[in-house]
Amino acid sequence: MKRILYFLTLLLLQNVIYAQNEYGKIDDTERISLRPVIPSQVEKLSPASKNLLINKMRKIATVNGLADTDLFSRFVITASIDVLYKSTTSTIPPMFVYTLDVTFYIVDIRSQIIYTQTNMEIKGVGKNETKAYISALKNINPKSSRIKHFVENGKEKIIEYFNDQCDFIIKQAETLAAQKKYENAINELSSVPNVCKDCYLICMDKANDVYKQYIDNKCTEDITKARAAWASFNEKEALDYLSQIFPDTKCYQEAQKLVEEIMNHDCSESLGKAKAAWANRDSDDAAKYLAKIPAFSQCGKDADMLAKEIKKSLDAQAYSSWQDKKEREEKEYNLKYAQFLANPQGEYIAPVPKTYDIKAEKIQQTRELSSDFSKTLGNML
Q1: What local confidence, expressed as pLDDT, does residue 380 receive?
Q2: How far apart are CA 189 and CA 236, in angstroms?
Q3: 3-state secondary structure 307-342
């Protein structure tokens, strides 16, 4: 599996949704951050021009309090450039003159939505084409009223979009979860960025409910598979399935009873073989089978009595060697039940649940989109 995704459910949500935040909520807009990205169509710029353009976009974000250095941030500021006019002066030496049309965009790379854009015409003069181009880019003013309005409009559009879409996203996630498409459901819920606090928190709570649905559904599947494996006395396969059942699932107790059933069957079989081995005075085989019997199992007392009987029949050196062998066998055996025993009181150690890390999942999803994003962005603009 590439990754395991877990989730959350619903009910009070439809009443809560209508209490959505209205645009203009300062704590929402302040959570938006922009990462500067150059699309493929602009990547043909000279390195100096490219660095200057990136720095200009970074300055735009910084001046407006939206700077972001996270390589996997979903909101980006980007630009496209068209050369409107290119000429040379009649002076000596001749100078190159460039007139550029620069369009800035605020884009969500995950949903591939362009929230806002603005364009400006800039002119530059230089001794060669590169310097003329750079001269033009230097005339971009990150503090201009046009740029400020562009950024404010982008923030407004982002908040408005997710406020408008929140109830649809949740309903879609609920539908997917009902169809047991849990990974798709979590993708829907995790599509809401934390810039929209109310919707984001609702979706995170929903994700916990879907996670519970997921592990309960998986638990039912695993217990069924474990019983089928155990019916064929395939102990290893049965325990593999049982080891995937977490303590907070609805069938955990049922799983533990099956573990106990398997262990008791195992211990009865091992005790019989240990007794048979000792009847033939084969202490080594007896040690191997006794090592498979936990002290807290239903065979524990009988196994302990047999071990004491063997001890009486061996001298101190032989018993020490026998005990060492038994302990080595116990270590190997405990690997088999490592997730279920480990407690001298006979309490089972539950497997450690694999929790769903929403932030990590969002980073992974954004990383996948970012891998060829400049090309995708070039097609969008």
Answers
A1: 58
A2: 37
A3: HHHHHHHCCHHHHHHHHHHHHHHHHHHHHHCCCCCC
